[in-house]
# Entry
Amino acid sequence: MPLITAQDVRIPADVLPEAHELYVENYLAATRSTGRLMLFACDQKLEHLNDDFFGKGINPADNNPEHLFRIATKGVVGVMAAQRGLIAQYANDYPGINYLVKMNSKTHLIKPSQDDPYSPQLNSLDAVIAMREAGVNIVGLGYTIYLGSEYESTMLAEAGELVAEAHAQGFIVVLWIYPRGKAVVDEKDAHLIAGAAGTAVCLGADFVKVNPPQAADGLSSAQLLARACEASGRTGLVCAGGSSVDASSFLTQLYEQIHIGGAQGNATGRNIHQRSLDEAVRLTKAISAITLADYDPDEALDVYEGKENFRLPHYH
# Structure
């Protein structure tokens, strides 16, 4: 696909003039100068505790947090998303990664039947700015909102303020938005996911991460995703990767999300990091081949299987 330049990046009005250049640099870095996002999601280390990192079907290397950084360094990703503390522990050894700091998190121990979900902000923006000024390559921030939770208003207010303050400092912002709580009947209802996408653009996010909708009424998940992508307007929509599936199925699903649904990238975690380092690296390249270079699923599968080398023609 065509690469974009600084002149192609649309700068939101809440980015202060003195931060315009930095915002453009961060956007181009995060999207590898394509306008599409390949987000390597590593926030599950807190969100899902060790359930996603140790156990049956999970490569033993995944129990060590450094596995995530090795994948991001050797593979092809746009940004690696993780909590500030995890990044702080390893960033000096892995300075070449584009980092996105996940600003809020919760564990999965408290179930919706006990209490509606609320994910509190863990750190101040000042703490993130201090890390950036110390030399850590932080290009963006992330925040999760659970629409339909009785705590939704708190999360919406925190996210809205965070987007404004982050943009003023030249960061890009990705919002994770999931309908969840006792008021939500079907978390993957296409109409509700389109509403989540629209919420993201109202908050001013650069990208929104949603779950792909459930197929319904004779329409596939990718066909229904198109409604959410339209509703998100100038906020690029990416889909969560979900639990691990075979590479061929995953790559086909991703291709359809982009080319049928209109998604502007992907956000993948478990499907990558639960594999060995070699396999995970090959999968990041296959995912990026589709996301950043418009390979079809068969061509991307050849990359995953090592039959074809993949290198982006240009890195910002």
